[in-house]
């Protein structure tokens, strides 16, 4: 896979998102930031995330820019964030060169655009060690996502996933069916999450009670969506694909809810 791939693709409307960028006469730019601490075999994120977002981009008229790194803490073409409308992040315990981390922080804190974070991104910028010239973002989970990752359950148990009944009519859960299913991914311990988050899905297993799984919130003017889903087998589940599509569309909205 090339480090930077730009894919332009045709349109199918969802949630009236087709009108969002009509005035600018351009496709929304969805940037994908993927790195798993150099260990690609855990979730196969370096393969699964770009493949899914590219597939969704084909159906939804997104310009998709994929930034991957198999090295620790270095991405090519990170300046694309200057024109990005939604940043999709799947990273795991990485630091970034200081200038690149500054760009990521500027996007999240100042752009007023969208952020969709998957699974290990809750501890994505919390490396076990930090090379010289690099920066971490230990507070990313609590400060931006509004979560509180403290570990996960046993990998061989998996987790039961269910939609919040009161949110079934929300665009976030459009076509997210079945509303109850089993994921091979372990439960992420996320509590307590921030009070201003809106929760759409929970997860539980026999070893632990329910945990918030998928939620959205505003971080300043930035639309933030997080889901602890993203185990490598989740990418085969239609409900997961629909959820990610919906989260990107939600994050692409230009106005505060």
Which properties best describe this structure?
257 residues; alpha/beta; disordered N terminus; Rossmann fold; 26% strand; ten-stranded mixed sheet; globular; two-stranded antiparallel ribbon
How would you describe what is shown here?
The chain is an alpha/beta fold and 257 residues long. The protein has one domain (4-148, 213-252): Rossmann fold. It has helices spanning 45-60, 98-110, 140-145, 238-252; strands at 4-8, 29-35, 63-68, 86-91, 96-97, 114-118, 134-135, 159-163, 180-183, 198-205, 208-219, 222-227. The strands form 2 sheets. It has a 10-stranded mixed β-sheet with strand order 1-3-2-4-6-12-11-10-8-9, sandwiched between helices. A two-stranded antiparallel sheet has the order 5-7. Strand 10 and strand 11 (208-219) form a beta hairpin. The model is unreliable at 1-23 (pLDDT under 50).
In short:
The protein is of the alpha/beta class and 257 residues long. It contains 4 helices and 12 strands, in the order E-E-H-E-E-E-H-E-E-H-E-E-E-E-E-H.
Write down how many β-strands occur, each being a DSSP E stretch of 2 or more residues: 12
Number of domains: 1
User: What's the CATH class label?
Assistant: Alpha Beta
Largest sheet: 10 strands, mixed
> According to CATH, what is the topology?
Rossmann fold
CATH architecture: 3-Layer(aba) Sandwich
Give the helices and strands, then pairings.
Layout: E1 4-8, E2 29-35, H1 45-60, E3 63-68, E4 86-91, E5 96-97, H2 98-110, E6 114-118, E7 134-135, H3 140-145, E8 159-163, E9 180-183, E10 198-205, E11 208-219, E12 222-227, H4 238-252
Parallel strand pairs: 2-3, 2-4, 4-6, 6-12
Antiparallel strand pairs: 1-3, 5-7, 8-9, 8-10, 10-11, 11-12
